[in-house]
Amino acid sequence: MTIQQLRYVTVICGAGSLNKASELLYVAQPSLTSAVRELEKELGITLFNRSGRGVTPTNDGLEFIRYAKEIIAQYDNLLDKYGKSGQLKKKFGISTQHYSFAIKSFVEMVRHFGTDEYEFAIRETRTRDIIDDVFTGKSEIGILYLNDFNRKPLEKLFKSNGLVFTPLTECNAYVYLWKGHPLADKKLIRFEDLAKYPCLSFEQGDNGSFYYAEEILSTNEYPKMIKATDRATMLNLMVGLNGYTLCSGVISEELNGSDYLAVPFEADDNSVGSKMVIGYIAKKNMLLSNIAELYIRELDNYLRNYQKNHIK
């Protein structure tokens, strides 16, 4: 088994066809096919189902490819640091749900490094991608939330991937909307108040699950629902369509602007998961880097101060 073979199978998985993968890799298709078959023979498993429409990973293939991505990420990190052209830059990456406070804390962390050489990355992405990014080493930590609804399935997923969740703060549900919204002046908002307005939700992909939803109370029946993929679009929809979303109430005006606000949500007695615990995931039994510890301190300080000064 070689790193080259591992790269081949990860690219094939992403491309969905051998033809496309051969173009991306600049490798002749027969050579690519031969390399994959040799790897399958060595492993004793079938990595891909092949058809006239392309290739799809088998169940064994999906599991193998996830580990392959982890190995490739670690190998590339070694080359970056110790290879012939390697530079000892400070490196750090996080993956997060769409939280402005996570971005704000990242900004403060980066400011600590001044003109030092570094290579940092922050990825606002889907919940399952956050878990995969930390598992493969693409990101050192991931920022997300747990509540009574998603806790058991997500903690099971964390355990199977060798990850551990560390809580930072607990929040009640808030309705996030723009200041011109008809409900903006209310002290509390109930579910029935929202019936005629579109609920905005971050898309979780084709394999999305209720358990991956970034918005709490995701199992409620919403008469009007609009999916978005990024925070900027979400904010535009709030203004253009009087849309709303359910959130932690922790927002950064410095990044999102002052045209939006969070109104406390009064959940029904039967609502499950109306409280959320925001925290981070990291690999179990692995010491965090100094950069990760600095970021977590900035994040913890921001959450504590915001809760103290804004949320009653």
Quick structural summary:
This protein has 312 residues and is α/β, with parallel strands linked by helices.
Overview of this protein structure:
The termini are far apart. The chain has 312 residues and is α/β, with parallel strands linked by helices. It is globular. The model has no long low-confidence stretch (mean pLDDT 85). The strands form four sheets. It has a five-stranded mixed β-sheet with strand order 4-3-5-13-6, with helices on both faces. A four-stranded mixed β-sheet has the order 8-12-7-11. It contains ten helices and 13 strands.
Keywords:
13 strands, four-stranded mixed sheet, alpha/beta, about 40% helix, about 300 residues, about 25% strand
Instruction: Report the sheet with the most strands, covering strand number, pairing sense and barrel closure.
Output: 5 strands, mixed
User: Helicity, in percent?
Assistant: 40-55%
Question: Which structural category do the helix and sheet elements fall into?
Answer: alpha/beta
- Mean pLDDT figure: 85
